[in-house]
Amino acid sequence: MEIVQIVGLGLLAGMLISLLRQHKPELAMQLSIAAGVMLFMLMVARVLRVVEVLQTLASRASLEQAHMDTVLKIIGIAYVADFGAQVLTDAGERAVATKVEMAGKIIIMLMAVPIVLAVLDSILKLLG
User: What's this model's pTM, rounded to 2 decimal places?
Assistant: First the structure.
């Protein structure tokens, strides 16, 4: 039933934003950001549980904790960059949103390099 609360909050915020956008667009933007943050905060506890499960699985599989931490950071960067880009798009700043998305992708690519190198090293050891 949690999804009903989330959809309800989203619909309520959407209707209020539509009404405000006509008369007070600056308040509509603020409400949009606040609603997005509230919806995100509702999901934080669930995301933390998923992170715990992934860390448990990684330790069972004897994966290096540093690699798992990097993967989790990459996932976090992807979500934050996407959220920021969506807020910017809602504000009519599509050009800036595109740059935020690009910056997120570059950061993810840079963070992934050590993992890619570790995978290649493992492959070379298996072949060698």
Answer: 0.77
